[in-house]
Structures are given as C-alpha cells and as structure tokens.
Amino acid sequence: MGILNLFLAASMPVLKVLLVTAVGSFLALDRIKILTEDARKHLNTVVFYVCTPALILGTLAQTITYDSMAKLWFMPINVFITFIIGTLLGWLVNLVTRPPPHLRGLVIGCCAAGNLGNILIIIVPAVCKEKGSPFGDPDVCSTYGLAYTSLSMAMGAIFLWGYVYNVIRLSIEVSASSVSECTTITGTAEPESFTEPLLSPKEYNVSEDKADSLPCTRFDGTQVGVADKLKQNVMNISRNLNLKKLFSPSTNAAILGFIIGLVPLLKNLLIGDEAPLHVIEDSIVWIGDAAVPVLTLIIGANLLKGLQASGIQKSMIVGIIIARYIALPIIGTLIVRTAVRFNLVSADPLYQFVLLLQFAVPPAMNIGTITQLFGKGESECSVIMLWTYVFATVSLTLWCTFFMWLVA
C-alpha cells in the first residue's frame, strides 16, 4: 500500500476531528453563547457519568472473550510505560525550563498522561472506515478498535486519577507550604490551602527561578535539612494520596463490561440480536454513540480558553510538545516493536496500531479538570492544551501514517 494512500487514510480522521473541534470553539464564542462555561460543565458531567461509560460498557461487553483477554494483557503494561517515560521526560522539561514550583506537577502531568480515551475513540474507528486503511473489514475493525480504545480509556483513567492527580496536588501543596514557611517567620502561619492563590515572587523581592532555592527558615532559626524535607515529602505522599478517583465511571464500566463479556450466562442474556434482553444492550450502545461527537465539541470549546490566556513560559510549551510528539513516539515505537519481536504482542495490526498510537496522542483533557479542582494553573493549562492540540493535527497525521505503514 502506497504512502500517499496511508497518508490520506490517516489525515481524514484528523481533519474530521479538527472540523468538529472548530464547531465546538465557534459555539463557545461570547457572541454565540451556546457552549458557555456552565453549559460545558453540565454537558461534560453527562458525558463523564453517562455517555462515556455506556460506550465503554457496550463495546467491551460485545468483544471481550477469554481469547481476547490473552491478547490484551500487554495493553495495561503499555499504558504504564507511557506514564513512566512521560514522567521522566516531564522531569527533564522541568530541569531545562525551570517553571514556577506550582506548575512543575502540571508539566509532568502533561508529559505523562496522554489522551488515551477521547482521541483514540474518535480516530481509530474513523481510520477503520477509510478506503486506504490496512485493517480489513470496516465494521469488524471499528468494533474491535472500540474495544481496544475502551480498555485504553479505562486504564488511562486509573493512572490519570491515581497518579497525575496526586502529582499535581502535591506540587501545589509543596509550593504553598514552602512559601508559607519562608514568609511567616515572625507571624502566624495561614492555614495551608491549595485553593488560595500563591503570592507573586515580586512580593518577596525574589525571582521565580530563585524562589524555590532559597533556604527556608523555621521559627527557631535552623535550616530544614535535606533528610527532613525528604522524610516530610514521603509522609505527605503516604498520608495524602487520593485513591478514590481510581474508580471513575469509566473504570467501573470497564469492569462491568469485562464481567458481562467473560460470564457466558450474562453475555447470552444481554449481547446479540437473539438475546432475551438485547434491548438493554441496544439502549446502552445508543447512549454511548453520543459520546464521540459531544466530546469533540467540548474539546473545541475548552481550547478556546487558551486564546484568552497569556503570560505562560514559551519554553515550557515547547518542551512539552517535543516530549509528547517527538521523544515519546520514538521511544514507544522501539518498545512496541521489541515486544512484537519477542511475541509479547499479537500479530493483529490494529492492536499494534493502538499500542503505538498511545505514545503519540496529546495530553489528557482531564488535566484541565484537575487544575480547576485545585484552583491553580488553570490559565497555564488552557494555553498548554491549545498549542499541544494545534500541533497534534500535524503530529497525529504523520505518526498515524508511519504507524499504519509499520504494521501493514
């Protein structure tokens, strides 16, 4: 199959996403006032709690079997690897660009957590339906592609809320506590809260780059040692880890989908045109079908906020783009191809394509939700999302073309 045909097959889904995203941005304009901030919040709640779990439940229940389980075991490991490598790349970006302390967790999160659900659920079925696709029958490809991407979404949600959520939270809390310790030597310390804005560096007559390097003084005049700081951070992590977010609606839907798919009695009762309760499955699939277009509209509306924000470090954005769209896909390609060589991954081209694509997607949109929860880094996150998703239109097209050529 020619490179040109593969390029056309890869570019069409990205263009579709771009067009629907543009519609979402248009509906969010101040003079249109359809996708207002309140409307987006309500719509996002419906998608998060209803549409996306229905999509995951329906596709997994239809496609999961004991045979497919043997093939899918590598995907959770692959998702875990993307987070580990992304974390290391984020640490390097922080080392080079030296962002403010409360943004360092955001940088690591944007490098580590890719959009393993929404973007894949949009792109993979669209690629299957293109004439130049190397993945065979479009209907079969779409069904199994949705199963792969649904599992990817569930695993991504677990790592996002279990790991990135706490990384960003701890970064904000450590930054706030450092400022409090350094500036309340003679006064009464304010209660620690990561929902209150940090004081600007000008109020301390120090620069942002040096604010975190100044020695903090305790009330008794002694400096905090490295061992004490390390011990305090470890205790904070163990005491404050928020694991409640692990079991999000998407994760619960994936668990239920696995149960239905692997229990013959439930599968025969619910799945298939001859099933006695197939109307339940049809209703779930019907609701889930709304997830993809609505998610794309919300992404477009949310990206509009990035045009209205300013003052973010350009080098930080460039570092995240290089990490996500150059370094991570190259490393991911080597990892997946090595796994294929050692027969750790099945020969299914579509499955390999999804594994490769997990390394090339833009940052997870839910990172913006996390910054909103803490009230820190919202404007910076919106700018990061804007530019990373703008570059994703080119990056995803090129990487999709290469990945399809690689697995074809």
TrEMBL record:
Transmembrane residue ranges: 6-29, 41-61, 73-93, 105-127, 147-168, 253-271, 283-304, 316-338, 350-374, 386-407
Taxonomic lineage: Eukaryota, Viridiplantae, Streptophyta, Embryophyta, Tracheophyta
Species: Daucus carota subsp. sativus
Name of the protein in its database record: Uncharacterized protein
Keyword Transport: yes
One GO cellular component term noted in the UniProt record for this chain: endoplasmic reticulum membrane
Record-level GO BP terms: auxin-activated signaling pathway; endoplasmic reticulum to cytosol auxin transport
Family: Belongs to the auxin efflux carrier (TC 2.A.69.2) family.
Domain of life of the organism encoding this protein: Eukaryota
